[in-house]
Design a protein that fits this description.
Rossmann fold, 3 domains, single chain, 536 residues, 6-stranded parallel beta sheet, alpha/beta, MenaQ_synth_MenD
């Protein structure tokens, strides 16, 4: 057979621009793409059967490498199953190249099998759409890497036949595939020129500066600015090392006027905490700045934005002239003693167990992937903090789908322990994350099993609904044991303190899963008691 025209060149163009990893989902229509990727020689290829899991697996790799990862599927509904990961990548600003094989255009809308409308399949949630037959697809990697980074789709209509005969060798493959020169990606510079005169004057004249840090990679913003007496607050996903328990401080709303800043500066992306958003929406600063090289639109979750400073956080920190401030209303000493006393009397409830787990992990060389819903909130409330441990979480769309798959993908790209902390519903929803041959020895999974969606017992309004048990909390009796065994992962279980051995679990030789069983009613009661300590 004649190999479909242009596919070899497309794949090599991606490679020459620094793309060298591909997650491939099995199928017929995408067979030529699969063959070109796997026989190229320059790509690390992974085969993942479930497209939804595959998309998040690729997302996890891209999070760690910072480079675009190909995710490739056959035609029809397969591409739609990439959608949750594509949307997450869009809002989390992670580069992906989505290769969707398609039927020839003359068969679209003709009731042909596995045929849907694939042009602009992801709508506004892809940075760009490329039609393989009409567009210059070589621009895809640079588009994915330009700030804000994100996913792009290349739709590739392929006609039959698309299976090569045995022994078929791709034309000119040796000349292309043996090229050792890898053209490094030249992503659009994020160090845009900024006239700092205005901003430095505002910093100098502001008496009360508050810096918030949203989801980011590890950074030293807290360490740098706290030396000047400037309060820096961030969720665990900010990775800034802040020890200020802002969510607990803000539980006492009578303190909000005292905590109101003159100048608010925000780095990074989204916040988990709802209270900080409510606080700044009602107690607006005179000025509020977003530091971002090129944000999508004009995001203003605090409803007080006055300036967008188009540069990256490092460039801003270097260019800004900081001066010492004496405003210390955000000192968290008033809550530290209450936390210390509370956690000195542990119980077998999730809040205490998250505190214990955080303490144990922080002593290791590890990174953690926190699932959405209640898990990502618990780590903001505990006394123990992740400081040296880098925290990841799918907070682009904050869905529970793909949390585990993202961790499994990221685990491919680190020698540290890669630990997924996840609730039972999120685990069961994404257990196909373990349905592959790429479960590395450094993977650890901690499943908090309270028999359902425990977060709803803590939400005002929801916790009192008669439909809570059946239609919101979705009570279930499944465990992770059989899934772990099917995946060849060592299984640990704990239902009381005597059964919990975090040291043995973390030091297990090979991948391991720990399931911690608790009672959702007791969890909710303990959390209410804890939060009541900090209210007026």
């Amino acid at each position: 057979m004649a190999f479909p025209k242009g596919i070899i060149e497309l794949v090599d163009s991606l490679y020459q621009q620094g793309v060298n990893e591909a997650v491939i989902c099995p199928g017929s229509r995408n067979a030529p793409l699969m063959i070109a990727l796997t026989r190229h020689g320059g790509f690390k290829c992974y085969s993942i059967a479930d497209e939804r899991s595959a998309g998040f697996f690729g997302l996890g790799i891209a999070l760690k490498t910072g480079r675009p990862v190909v995710i490739c599927c056959t035609s029809g509904s397969a591409g739609l199953n990439f959608a949750p990961a594509v949307v997450e990548a869009f809002f989390q600003e992670v580069p992906l190249i989505v290769l969707t094989a398609d039927r020839p255009k003359e068969w679209i809308g003709q009731w042909d099998g596995q045929t849907i409308y694939q042009e602009n399949l992801f709508g506004k949630h892809a940075k760009a759409f490329f039609d393989f037959e009409t567009d210059d697809c070589s621009a895809a990697p640079l588009t994915a890497m330009a700030e804000p980074k994100g996913p792009v789709q290349i739709n590739v209509p392929i006609s039959e036949p698309f299976y090569p005969e045995p022994g078929f060798i791709l034309e000119n493959s040796s000349a292309i595939f043996q090229n050792e020169t890898l053209a490094k990606h030249k992503a659009q510079s994020t160090k845009n020129k900024v006239d700092f005169a205005y901003f430095n004057q505002a910093i100098a004249s502001a008496e009360k500066i508050l810096v918030t840090v949203g989801q980011m990679e590890h950074n030293s913003i807290f360490e740098t600015l706290s030396a000047y007496g400037i309060p820096v607050i961030g969720d665990a996903t900010s990775n800034c090392g802040s020890t200020i328990g802002h969510d607990l401080l803000l539980a006492d709303e009578s303190m909000w006027p005292v905590l109101q800043p003159d100048l608010h500066i925000h780095f990074g992306k989204s916040f988990v905490s709802k209270r900080i958003k409510q606080f700044l929406r009602t107690h607006k600063p005179k000025q509020s700045w977003l530091i971002h090289p090129n944000p999508i639109g004009r995001p203003d979750p605090f409803l007080c934005l006055t300036h967008v400073v188009n540069t990256d956080s490092n460039s801003f920190m270097e260019g800004a002239e900081w001066s010492s401030k004496t405003w210390n209303s955000w000192n968290s000493a008033k809550i530290d003693s209450k936390q210390t006393e509370f956690f000195a009397n542990p119980s077998w409830t999730e809040l205490h167990l998250y505190n214990q787990v955080t303490e144990a992990i922080e002593q290791k060389e590890a990174e953690v992937h926190i699932a959405n819903s209640l898990a990502v909130r618990y780590i903001n409330w505990t006394l123990a903090k992740f400081i040296k441990t880098e925290v990841y979480s799918n907070r682009g769309t904050s869905g529970i789908d793909g949390c585990l798959s993202t961790a499994v993908g990221a685990a491919q790209k680190t020698d540290k322990l890669c630990i997924s902390i996840i609730g039972d519903v999120a685990f069961q929803y994404d257990r196909n994350a373990l349905w592959n041959h790429y479960i590395p020895a450094n993977l650890r999974i901690i499943v908090f099993n309270n028999g359902g969606g425990g977060i709803f017992r803590n939400l005002d309004g929801a916790k009192d609904l008669p439909e809570l048990d059946e239609f919101m909390e979705t009570r279930q009796g499944f465990t992770a044991e059989n899934t772990a065994k099917d995946a060849g992962i060592n299984y640990f279980s704990a239902s009381n303190p005597s059964e919990l051995d975090l040291n043995a679990f973390l030091h297990n030789q090979g991948p391991a899963l720990l399931e911690i069983h608790t009672n959702s009613i007791e969890n909710a009661a303990e959390l209410r008691k804890y939060m009541a300590l900090f209210k007026a």
